[in-house]
Write a structure and sequence with these properties.
This protein is an alpha/beta fold. The protein is built from 15 helices and nine strands. Strand 6 and strand 7 form a beta hairpin. The protein starts with 7 loop residues before the first helix and ends with a helix.
């Protein structure tokens, strides 16, 4: 386990050591979340690094990462715990076969930790080797308002209530990161319990730093062309603009193909690494891609 960083610069350096390039604002809110023990709520477009910061913090601090992947219809049983009904039925049949089973004693025995299936929220409230875990509640906007209301107890008091067992409180509050792609608004009551940060697309210089960190084998010239092309793509009227994750994926794809510089042919062959909808690919492929490439080469100053 690594000690919590002492200041904002230490957070930036800690994240950078794991390959995550954070700007000052993100490092500041991450430092405050760690220092004050507050959940951190990150909103932004898909692929800008919201989920990655939770993974990076867990790795940098030597903590267990516990991920609750949200989806429509997620409920308490899936998020906190469930009972092993098959094992409970076997125990009931075994007791009945033995004859003279004490129903009250059997009922008490069936609803114990032995028959409990632990889900992410309950696991985050348990003592973990190496210190409090990092709890990632990913894509919260995919759930519904009743589940948000259920989360209030967990985020306010760092505890969950299981009717059969009572309230289980975390011995040490977990480090909580919530993410949202803002497909819908999350309720203010939940946001008030968190520190908030909007994770935006990076500027050219920071995206270059990210590519250097995540695809260090790429030459400076290729990296500059990749980043400049993606930055220009984000100004186009696309259904889904490419995120930083797509920039990194594209760089790795080009390296795998031994590409040393962009060309219209290479772009046409690899557009699927950065654009994920056919309408977007059709809109950019061909002359539009060549035009973007010509523009960026006219603008780029040799490194």
């Amino acid at each position: 386990m690594t000690d919590l960083p002492a200041d904002i610069d230490a957070v930036t350096a800690m994240l950078a050591a794991e390959g995550y390039v954070a700007d000052r604002a993100l490092s500041t809110v991450a430092f405050l979340a760690l220092k004050l023990g507050r959940p951190l709520f990150l909103e932004g477009e898909a692929g800008v690094g919201k989920t990655e910061i939770a993974k990076t913090l867990a790795a940098a601090l030597g903590r267990r990462l516990i991920r609750l992947q949200c989806y429509e219809g997620l409920d308490a049983a899936s998020a906190v715990c469930d009972w092993n009904f098959a094992a409970q039925m076997i125990a009931i049949r075994t007791a009945e076969a033995g004859g003279g089973a004490d129903r009250d004693a059997l009922r008490a025995e069936l609803f114990t930790e032995d028959y409990l299936i632990e889900r992410p929220l309950l696991a985050a409230m348990r003592r973990q080797p190496g210190g409090a875990p990092v709890l990632l509640i990913d894509e919260l906007d995919r759930t519904d308002e009743p589940f948000e209301a259920f989360l209030l107890e967990a985020l306010s008091d760092f505890q969950v209530t299981i009717p059969e067992l009572g309230t289980i409180k975390a011995p040490e509050p977990p480090i909580v990161i919530l993410t949202s792609n803002r497909t819908r608004e999350v309720h203010d009551a939940l946001k008030r319990r968190c520190l908030y940060h909007w994770v935006d697309y990076p500027n050219f210089e920071r995206e270059m730093e990210i590519v250097r960190a995540r695809a260090p084998e790429a030459t400076e010239t290729l990296s500059r062309e990749i980043v400049a092309f993606v930055q220009k793509l984000r100004r186009e009227d696309l259904f889904k603009k490419p995120g930083v994750a797509e920039t990194i994926d594209w760089a790795k794809c080009l390296l795998a193909l031994d590409v040393i510089a962009l060309s219209p042919e290479v772009i046409a062959d690899t557009l699927g690494a950065i654009l994920k909808y056919q309408d977007d690919i059709q809109k950019i492929a061909g002359d539009p891609a060549k035009k973007i490439l010509d523009e960026l080469r006219a603008e780029l100053v040799p490194a």
